[in-house]
Amino acid sequence: MVQRIEAEGSVALKDGRHVTIRNLQESDRVALATFGQSLPRNDILYLEDDFTHPEIISRLANASHAENWRQIVAVTDDGEFVGYTAAMRMPGWSNHVANIRLIVQPDYRRSGLGMHLAQAIVEAARELGATKVTVDMLAALTAGQAIFSRLGFAVEGQLARHAIDRDGNLHDIVIMSAFVRV
Residues near 176 by Cβ (< 8 Å), separated by ≥ 6? Predict the structure, then answer.
């Protein structure tokens, strides 16, 4: 079993604000639910889990100690969640691969928070024992692709009309990956 290292630390953003990056805890249910409710409607599409659903929030909080899953949040001084990221190591023949998800509250985008969270979750995936990390995102999310490109990720593929938004519009998905050392 891989030793679990806690992600924690205060980071200064480009705009002078500070947030704490730390692992999600079981006691974070209310803050995570509030974060989910604060996201624009279609931002929920970027996450595999619906952050507005109470059962999903419970499942995420309960998974804070899961063996093959890491969740990291960005928290303001007043306890508000402004970013979430997760890495889940895949089962079976892909158990060397971790898939990551990342979302930042709109008011904190373009502040460097996405890069801080991306770096933290790639490190967490490495700690999980992953040697390859993947991220799926809408092709239109060029800022997200730029973040992961700076971390050494490359586009591995694109799936046409693979995601559907809340209004029924179809979107292409880009799959990016990077190899990391354990």
Answer: 134, 135, 136, 137, 145, 148, 149, 153, 154, 155, 156
Task: Express each pLDDT in 117-126 by its tens digit.
Answer: 999 999 999 9
Distance, CA of 13 to CA of 16 (rounded, Å): 5
Model's pTM, two decimal places?
A: 0.90
Buried b (16+ CB within 10 A) or exposed e, 92-103: eeeeebbbbbbb
Taking the alpha carbons of 58, 61, 63, 65 in that order, is the dihedral positive or negative? negative
Q: What is the pLDDT of residues 57-87, one digit of tens each?
A: 888 888 877 889 999 999 999 999 999 999 9
Domains and CATH numbers, the chain: 8-134 (3.40.630.30)
C-alpha span between 48 and 46 (Å, rounded):
7
User: What is the amino acid identity at position 62?
Assistant: N
Per-residue pLDDT, 3: 39
